[in-house]
Amino acid sequence: IGRPSNSIRYQYPHEDWPERYNDAQETSGGLFFVSESGAIRRVSSELAGQSLRGDSVFSLVPDPAGQRDWLCTPVGLAWLSPEGRILEKFSRAEGLCANSITGGVELDGSFYFASAWGHSGGGLLAYDPRTQIFTSFHRSDGLDADKVENVSLDGKRLKLTFGFENLYVTG
């Protein structure tokens, strides 16, 4: 009757048929930017240097200076130019404490990002634009947990939301 498969296949619902896209060459899925004129440009899962390393963005953190915005993704951070181009990408390969960056905020000229991975990994990432250095903070630095699910502002203070950490005991 059929062969077993370990792959997942997505069937487009009626309103999402590929023929309804303006640019029929870009219908294989992913993250797209659509200009006000209707031009479509894919910005994810391409091998080109100006693309994201995946198809998801959890949040966008605006830069008050207007130089670049931050995209928080499951595979790190990306700088987005005012023209919508990916300028730079950061992940564990570039020294971040985790790839899954779920959100961020700007406070007093610095940027702070929530990161979490696995059962208990992650931390709070701080980026100083003046020095261009990322610093990570963890439980060993005084945080309640390493898995930081969200960072937001409470007035002029950071408010951290911690994720659930799993503990497995074998024996």
Task: Describe this protein's structure.
With 171 residues, the chain is an all-beta fold. Helices cover 0% and strands 38% of the residues. The strands form 4 sheets. It has a 4-stranded antiparallel beta sheet, with no helix packed on it. A hairpin with a 3-residue loop joins strand 8 and strand 9. It is globular, with a radius of gyration of 19 Å. The protein starts with 31 loop residues before the first strand and ends in a 9-residue tail after the last strand. 22% of the residues are buried. The N terminus is likely disordered.
What class would the helix/strand composition place it in? mainly beta
String of helices and strands: EEEEEEEEEEEE
Mean model confidence by pLDDT: 78
Quaternary structure classification: single chain
Q: For the largest beta sheet, what order do the strands appear in spatially?
A: 3-4-5-6
Number of strands: 12
Task: Give the fraction of residues assigned to helices.
Answer: under 10%
Q: Which helices and strands occur, and which strands form pairs?
A:
Elements: E1 32-34, E2 40-42, E3 59-61, E4 69-73, E5 76-80, E6 86-90, E7 101-107, E8 110-117, E9 121-128, E10 133-137, E11 148-154, E12 157-162
Antiparallel strand pairs: 1-2, 3-4, 4-5, 5-6, 7-8, 8-9, 9-10, 11-12
